[in-house]
Amino acid sequence: MIRHTLLFTAALMALVSAGQIQAAEPELLLVIKNHRFEPAELKVPSGQRVKLIVHNQDATPEEFESHGLGREKLIPAGAKVAVFIGPLKPGSYSFVGEYNEATAKGVVIAE
């Protein structure tokens, strides 16, 4: 009985550890400064979920919006907000700052 319990516990711990490894998404920083995204081009691995940390360094709020990525997120002035994307098929996915579309433009390239 003890042996079965130890084997079960070891198997359970292995599954939990594997889940924790898979849960760690790549993390990229995207800055909003002077109503522009920096960098304006982000390369991400295709087929994998990615965590974007969007840091709005402007004194006004901005809204990260992308129809291709299916994301819309308000980023208050001076705040950092996580936006999860993917997994994505290889290709280009544009995004804009909805409040400053003329200058706040960017693209995610999944490779």
Give structural notes.
By secondary structure, the protein is of the alpha+beta class. The chain has a single domain (25-110), classed as Cupredoxins -  blue copper proteins (Immunoglobulin-like). Helices cover 20% and strands 45% of the residues. It has one helix and nine strands. It has one helix spanning 2-23; strands at residues 27-33, 36-38, 41-44, 50-56, 62-66, 71-75, 80-85, 91-97, 105-110. The strands form two sheets. A five-stranded mixed β-sheet has the order 3-9-8-5-6, with no helix packed on it. It has a four-stranded mixed β-sheet with strand order 2-1-4-7, with no helix packed on it. Strand 8 and strand 9 form a beta hairpin. The N and C termini lie far apart (50 Å).
CATH architecture: Sandwich
The total strand number stands at: 9
Task: Provide the CATH superfamily.
Answer: Cupredoxins -  blue copper proteins
Helical content stands at 10-25%
Number of helices: 1
**Largest sheet report:** 5 strands, mixed
Question: H/E order of the elements?
Answer: HEEEEEEEEE
- CATH topology, anyone? Immunoglobulin-like
Strand order of the largest sheet: 3-9-8-5-6
Structural class: alpha+beta
As residue ranges, the low-confidence spans are none
| Residue-averaged pLDDT | 88
Question: What's the structural domain tally?
Answer: 1
Strand content: over 45%
- Shape from CA axes? globular
What is the radius of gyration?
19 Å
CATH class reads: Mainly Beta
First-residue to last-residue Cα separation: 50 Å
Q: Any descriptors?
A:
five-stranded mixed sheet, 1 helix, alpha+beta, four-stranded mixed sheet, 111 residues
